[in-house]
Structures are given as structure tokens and as C-alpha cells.
UniProtKB/TrEMBL annotation:
Organism: Sesamum alatum
Protein name per UniProt: Lipid-transfer protein DIR1
Signal peptide: 1-33
Keyword annotations: Signal
Any Gene Ontology biological process: systemic acquired resistance
Domain Bifunctional inhibitor/plant lipid transfer protein/seed storage helical: 18-111
GO MF: fatty acid binding
Database matches in Gene3D superfamilies: Plant lipid-transfer and hydrophobic proteins (1.10.110.10)
Coiled-coil regions listed in the entry: none
Length: 112
């Protein structure tokens, strides 16, 4: 009886340690995403989001804030997300994402 109570305390402690590790890994992954992506901040990415979202047949054109942000973004880096299988999970249509630079400026294209 005594031994099994000790064992279950140890098991509980191991479970808590595992949860703490998982939660802190998730938190640091989120913090990394908050730094932005490819030269764009998280806020700037949010500005562009409606124009690249899945689910709407005709997405709105990118806002001027989004286009201004794209002007200093690293498009080569964004090319790395072309055909990224995780983008749809975030509600992003990668075809639209790749069209975004030319929608802002017809002279600008993402050279992928
Ligand atoms: C993604 O965007 C393209 C171009 O606008 C469109 O043809 C396609 O149907 C969209 N796919 C999804 C899953 O929304
Ligand atoms: C842009 O992104 C690419 C791919 O991630 C990287 O190799 C390159 O150094 C970046 N360029 C700048 C100016 O940050
Ligand atoms: C695109 O390039 C043409 C020719 O160089 C130029 O006349 C036009 O102003 C440019 N458009 C934009 C939006 O920069």
C-alpha cells in the first residue's frame, strides 16, 4: 500500500515535469512567431492576412499597410513557404500568398 502510494506520487511528478516541458516549448515557439517572419512583424503579417486567407472566393485586395510592409519584407524567405503544407492549417492560401507582392505592385514579383 505504502509503496504503491509512493509510486503514484512519482508518476504524478513525472507527468507534471513532462507537462511543464511541453508547455514551455509551446510558449517559446509562440514567442518566436511574435518576432515576425521574413522581415515582417507579427502586426504586419496580420495586416496581410485577409488578402491571403482561405475560405473566401474573392479575398479583399491587400491593405496599403500590408503592401508597405511587404516593401521591406524578404521575399526570398517567403518563397520558402511556397507549397508549405502548414499554411492551410493557419487559414492561409499559399497561392494567394505568392500573388501578394504583384497585387501590391505590378512590377514586383516573388521570384521563386
Ligand atoms: C487559393 O487561391 C487560388 C487563387 O485565388 C484559388 O484558385 C484557390 O481556389 C484557393 N484555394 C483555396 C483552398 O482557397
Ligand atoms: C532572405 O531570406 C533568405 C532565406 O531565408 C536568406 O538566405 C537571406 O539571407 C535573407 N536576406 C536578407 C537580406 O535578410
Ligand atoms: C512599373 O514599371 C513601369 C515601367 O518601369 C513604371 O512606369 C510604373 O510606374 C511602375 N509601376 C509601379 C506601381 O511602380
Amino acid at each position: 500500500m505504502e509503496a504503491s502510494a509512493t509510486q503514484s506520487r512519482i508518476a504524478t511528478r513525472a507527468l507534471i515535469v513532462a507537462l511543464v516541458v511541453i508547455v514551455s516549448a509551446a510558449v517559446s515557439a509562440t514567442a518566436k512567431a511574435n518576432d515576425g517572419l521574413c522581415g515582417m512583424s507579427q502586426d504586419e503579417l496580420v495586416e496581410c492576412r485577409p488578402a491571403v486567407a482561405t475560405g473566401s472566393a474573392t479575398p479583399p485586395p491587400p491593405s496599403s499597410a500590408c503592401c508597405a510592409a511587404l516593401g521591406h519584407a524578404n521575399l526570398t524567405c517567403f518563397c520558402g513557404f511556397k507549397n508549405n503544407k502548414y499554411l492551410p492549417l493557419f487559414g492561409i492560401n499559399s497561392t494567394r500568398a505568392m500573388e501578394l507582392p504583384s497585387k501590391c505592385d505590378p512590377n514586383q514579383t516573388a521570384h521563386c
